[in-house]
């Protein structure tokens, strides 16, 4: 049994990018952010990961203000530090600099009470790649439908 509760999932990620390596990272959050996160008020639509001084940060991840947070509420789109091992950060930094990859968040979830984020090393798809992926998906759906109706 997995103690993982998925809070937000980036559906557009697999459509817009070729996803390669995946990593799990912790997120450094402020007081009311975890409460809003537990309520599911997270959006990963435009989020991406950047590096500064050999540290990883998630930018443009939107966590809505906690309803009962009063003056102690957080900034909704502030830059949040990711908690990764140093060798993982160095590996990701090198890939981004040399090979034209980007790093995007795939999902945010709670595991054993801790907020985690799944990030992926990704390379952007061209328009024809997106069309081919859609054609393959449609063909697979048609085959499954035909097989279901056959029996």
TrEMBL record:
Give the InterPro entries listed for this entry. Answer: SmpB (IPR023620), SsrA-bd_prot (IPR000037), SsrA-bd_prot_CS (IPR020081)
Offer one example of a GO biological process linked to this entry: trans-translation
Annotated source species:
Amedibacillus dolichus
> What is the protein name given in its UniProt record?
SsrA-binding protein
A GO CC annotation given for this chain:
cytosol
Q: Which family does it belong to?
A: Belongs to the SmpB family.
Q: Which GO terms describe its molecular function?
A: RNA binding
Top-level taxon of origin? Bacteria
């Amino acid at each position: 049994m997995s103690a993982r509760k998925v809070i937000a999932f980036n559906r557009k990620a697999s459509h817009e990018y070729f996803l390669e390596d995946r990593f799990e990272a912790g997120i450094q959050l402020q007081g009311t952010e975890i409460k809003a996160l537990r309520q599911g008020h997270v959006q990963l639509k435009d989020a991406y990961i950047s590096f500064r001084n050999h540290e990883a940060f998630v930018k443009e991840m939107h966590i809505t203000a906690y309803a009962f947070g009063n003056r102690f509420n957080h900034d909704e789109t502030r830059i949040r530090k990711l908690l990764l091992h140093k060798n993982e950060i160095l590996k990701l930094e090198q890939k981004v600099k040399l090979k034209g990859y980007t790093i995007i968040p795939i999902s945010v979830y709670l595991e054993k009470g801790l907020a985690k984020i799944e990030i992926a090393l990704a390379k952007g798809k061209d328009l024809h790649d997106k069309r081919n992926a859609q054609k393959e998906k449609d063909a697979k759906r048609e085959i499954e439908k035909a097989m279901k109706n056959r029996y």
